[in-house]
Design goal:
- The chain contains 5 helices and no strands.
- Helix 2 runs antiparallel to helix 3, helix 2 runs parallel beside helix 4 and helix 3 runs antiparallel to helix 4.
Amino acid sequence: MAQAAAQGDTRAMGALGVLYRDGTGVAKDPDAAARWLADAARGGDANAVYQYAKLQASSSGKGSSSADAEITRKAAEAG
């Protein structure tokens, strides 16, 4: 999966982001999770858009960038 994600597969990127978020099979790493999910979301993966928005909503105390806002807007539009 990591190889597919590194080659630009947005589904693999999103799945890897969730693994890092949850610490499943890898060390929990919220920063890596955010990077992978954001890349997948920018690539158009609908689930990654949702997962990224959910991650950002649960990250209390962290600032939000315009890129975060754009991805969150896409999640809202997708329903």
